Amino acid sequence: MPINQSSHLEIASNKRQILHSGSVHTYDESSLQFTVGNLQITFSFAENGNKPDMDINIKSETLLEINLQNFSNPTGIGTDSPINLGIMGGRQLSLAFTVQALSKESIKLLSYTFFLGEKV
After folding, report:
1. Is residue 90 situated within a structural domain?
2. Which of 4, 58, 67, 120 keeps 20 to 30 A from 48, CA to CA?
3. Among 76, 87, 81, residue whose Cα is nearest residue 14
């Protein structure tokens, strides 16, 4: 089977295109910022000794805050399924992620995937 030598790669899951996927460390235990198109997403981390909790705040049409409480676990804590963020280029934009941390005071490792669904 001949294969084109292009470096282009497309990945999909359940008919949803993977827009971008990766892992990133925080510089300290504070926050991370992503920009996808004109949407700014801020992840903030806090500890209060209780069970893990996630709070999503829509600040404006272009600003989303994801506040993560007690996401400090070496094996990871994250979304059970992708979170719908909005429409991008006529397609549903979704996000799934997992956070790992060695301790409450350590830096965080955020593994993420942005999905683009079919045209809406």
Report:
1. yes
2. 58
3. 81
